[in-house]
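New to this. Please check both lines:
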Amino acid sequence: MPFDPAIRPLTLHEARVLATLMEKARTVPDSYPMSLNGLVTGCNQKTSRDPVMTLSDAEAQEALDSLKRLTLAIESSGNRTTRWEHNFQRGVGVPEQSAVLLGLLMLRGPQTAGELRINAERWYRFADISSVEAFLDELQERSAEKGGPLVVLLPRAPGAREQRWAHLLCGPVDIASAAAPASGNSSSSSSSSSGGGSAPAALQARVDALEAQVAALQATVQRLCVELGIPDEMSPPGQD
C-alpha cells in the first residue's frame, strides 16, 4: 500500500529531510547515500529552500527514524558511518518524473509549471512545460486506491500571471494563505531561491541569457551575410 498523506501526513521536518535525500541523490551522487552530518547541512541550506530551516542533528535523526517506519527512507551502514537513502518512488508509488516534481515542491514551496521545469534541470530534464503539466495533472487526479491526490493547483495570486502548484504530502493546504502574495521571510526565500513571485529571479536570469545568445547569433548572421554578399533578413529596416 503506497504512502497515504490523508492517513499520516508528513511533518515539515520529515518532508525537508526526505526531499533533501531526493535532491542529493540526483545532484551529488558521489556523496550518496548520505551521512547525518551531510544531510543536516543539505536541509539547512539558505538557497533553493522555502522555508529556510535550521534543523538540529536530533531533529533530522528523528525525522529519518519516522521516514524509515514509513518505508520512505532506508538505513545502511558502511565505513563506520550510518548512511541514508530515500525510497520515495516505491514508497509513494509514483514514476520518476512525478517524484522529481514532488521533491521540488517539498524543497522550494509552491511553484508554477514553468518554474518547476527550470528548477528540475539538475534532477530531470523535461522536454517542455506541457510534459510537466501532464505529470502534475496525473498527481492531482490520483485515485483514492493509490492514496489520493498528491498536488493541488492554487488559485491565481493577485498580480501573478500563472497559477502555482503545491504538494499535499504534509496534508491539506490552506488555499487562501498559499495563494496570497508571499510576504516576510517566505517572500524573500521564494523570490531568491524558488522564484515564487510573478517575476522569479531564476527565470529572469534565464531570459537574460537567452537574449544575449540571440544577440550574438544575430551578429554572427550579419557578419556571414556581409562576407557572402547576401541580404540579411534578420536585420531591422535601415540596417542593411
